[in-house]
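During the first year of the project, the team set up a workflow for recording each protein of interest as an amino acid sequence followed immediately by a discrete structure-token representation. This format lets reviewers and collaborators read both layers of information side by side without switching files. As required by the reporting guidelines, we include two representative entries from the current panel. The first entry is reproduced here exactly as it appears in our internal archive.
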Amino acid sequence: MANKKLKVRLLSYNPEGEKIVAAAAKLCYARADIDTVLDGLTPEKTKDFLEMLTNLGHASPIEHISFTFGIENVSRALLAQITRHRIASFSVQSQRYVAEDGFDFVLPPAIEANPEAKALYLETMDVLAERYTKLTDLLMEGTPGTTADKKKAIEDARFVLPNGCTTKMMVTMNARSLLNFFNLRCCNRAQWEIRDLATQMLMLVREVCPTIFRYAGPPCVAGKCPEGKMTCGKANEMKEKFLGA
């Protein structure tokens, strides 16, 4: 068992994604047809169309491009949060088919910073791993020991696994869904793990689609904080972090 750190990779995207979005905008606002909609879309023209969409608040054209991420070493607690974002596709490593013997886990920073809490946490992980293995062995007793028998055993033994147990997933979202995801999950009010994930995902897509994701991040980077009395009060820090302003 080990404490694992978050890993995220941008696995797939359209290298001409911003041009595709600009073409969709051009079709909406200019006299163009399908045969010529991509004509004349220089980098400058593409940027102009994208900035026009931002100024108009017209977000549907950016749904034409999507991004696929590979994500490792996130907790099952994070999985419960990210799958609430419904306009996305998820493929997650199954605890029914993949045994979690000696499972890896996420160690929350607040627990890691407290020596007594850390020791208790690590001890708990050891106990749960031991119980998981013991339950699996008990449920295998009296069976032929086939792959199907093992699957049935770990299917029930997994009920003792903690939220901190790590998982792997692939996630695909279109650009509009990603902007909403970043708006909610890059905020300081979001839970620390999914905030870290969202921030890393934003930096990856900003490299390949800089205009679309130029003002992406928590609401305060491009406007007023919507949290009211619950605000973190760090809008300037957030602007510096996400916009470099």
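The second entry, processed by the same pipeline in the following quarter, appears below.
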Amino acid sequence: MRMTISSLALATLLAAPALAQNAPLVTGTVKKVDTAQGKLTVDHGPIKNLDMDAMTMVFRAGDPEMLKTVKAGDKIKFTAERVNGQITVTKIQK
């Protein structure tokens, strides 16, 4: 039983990076960066992998360091995924 649980946990960890590589890039405009909370607000286009329409919303940053690369008004491309139940930006580029 212990071996099965360990195998399942390992498979889950190994699959996570594969999901990030397959997530589509979405275009958007940064509206606000909240480094203290590790979040950013983005006015974005549709996010197909999350079945979301275009809107403005707050995302958690997968890596707080990514928040240092953007500011309000920046045009970006990013990937967003559900991580531990929260919609999270996993990759960002200007």
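For the second entry, the following points were noted during internal review. The beta strands are 26-34, 39-44, 55-61, 75-83, 86-93. The longest strand covers residues 26-34. Both points are flagged for discussion at the upcoming steering committee meeting.
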